[in-house]
Amino acid sequence: MVDESAGTPTAIQVRRRKRTALITLLSALTLVVVAAVIAIVYLGSLATTFDTKTQKIPDAFPQESTRPQAVAPPSSTDGKTAINILMVGTDSRGATVQEAEAGTPSDQRSDTMMLVHIPADRKNVYVVSIMRDLWVPIPGHGTAKINAALAFGGVPLMVQTVESLLHQRIDHVVFMDFEGFKGLTDAVGGVTVDVKIPFTAAQTSDYHFNAGPQTLNGDEALAYVRERYAFPDGDYQRVRDQQTFIKALVGKLASTQTLTNPVTISNAVNEVAPYLTVDSSFNSAAAASLAFELRDVRAGDIVTFTLPTDGIGWSTDGQSIVLFNAPATSALADALAKGQMQQYVKDNNLTNGN
């Protein structure tokens, strides 16, 4: 008989310890499995929300013969190519979005237009704001303000106009109604921006923005990014403020506090999805895949600037317009095509915008 006091375990004690270890291991595995199931159900729920609540544009792109050639994936790397997303902010008070989606003429206007360029290495994101009054050739309609393309021929003509301007193929189109913008801001608990130029919103005196950091709720954020009348250079400062807000919003969305909070993420998706209109290929799987590829990108990796122009002028029919700068636009198009955006930004001192 073995003396238990001597510290040597009996066979019964060994079996008990093994059972205890096995139970502990099984318990841990069970918790992992349960957590995984919850995560799958949760992610599946978010995917369903995105796919069912977003509006789809069945024919977002122009005829293939009018478009820049698609870039073939390189064979010697992971197969990724650059991605271009045309983001458009619209006002629901205009004509029906359905008319614009269908490619039919309407009086819908794109209030905000940005090209989001994601290089093949997925290390940075470049957001190029396009002034809505930029005077450019619109295929089949002569020369006009770029935001008129949506009114002349819906989404396909708008895409064709931007593609012909920058010689870049647009991969996805995303429209956000301003109501969704408000909801997204509130869903993440507000967004803190560094106000460079203090102002009072011209449309309502309820919102005054002092210089320095301020945390904005949805209504305040909307007033902040839409204001142009309070500034001497109008749309130029509005675009700068929009860029400032976007970087701050991305920083909030990419923060550990947000990413580890399922409630916040769920609220964000639920709030913004009903106000998003996307091309039919930009479903939850495509969005999730892109988000995973950009998982290491933070606010500091996002470069925002405005497509260079020649200032403000007048059209022959008396419209106030933003003058097109052909050489500067060609230089940007060349950098986009050659994958040299980092050098382009450095050469043109655009690291902190323009």
Structural account:
- The longest helix has 43 residues, at 11-53.
- This protein has helices at 11-53, 97-101, 148-166, 178-187, 218-226, 235-253, 256-259, 262-272, 284-293, 326-338, 341-347, and strands at residues 55-57, 83-90, 110-118, 125-130, 135-137, 143-145, 172-177, 191-195, 199-200, 208-209, 212-216, 276-279, 302-306, 309-314, 320-324.
- The protein starts with 10 loop residues before the first helix and ends in a 7-residue tail after the last helix.
- Helix 1 packs parallel to helix 8 (262-272) and helix 5 (218-226) packs antiparallel against helix 6 (235-253).
- The protein has one domain: Aminopeptidase, CATH 3.40.630.190.
- It has 354 residues and is of the alpha+beta class.
- A hairpin with a 5-residue loop joins strand 5 (135-137) and strand 6.
Features:
354 residues; alpha+beta; Aminopeptidase
Brief write-up:
The chain has 354 residues and is α+β, with helices and mostly antiparallel strands.
User: What global shape is seen?
Assistant: globular
CATH homologous superfamily designation: LCP protein
CATH class: Alpha Beta
Rounded to the nearest angstrom, the radius of gyration is 26 Å
* Average residue pLDDT: 81
Largest sheet: 7 strands, mixed
Q: What are the secondary-structure elements, in order, as H or E?
A: HEEHEEEEHEHEEEEHHHHEHEEEHH
Helical residues, percent: 40-55%
Q: How many separate domains make up the residues?
A: 1
CATH topology: Aminopeptidase
Number of helices: 11
Question: What class would the helix/strand composition place it in?
Answer: alpha+beta
Strand content: 15-25%
Instruction: Supply the CATH architecture.
Output: 3-Layer(aba) Sandwich
* Low-confidence region ranges: 93-97, 100-108
Side-by-side strand order of the widest sheet: 1-12-7-2-3-4-13
The CA-CA distance between the termini, in Å, is 87 Å
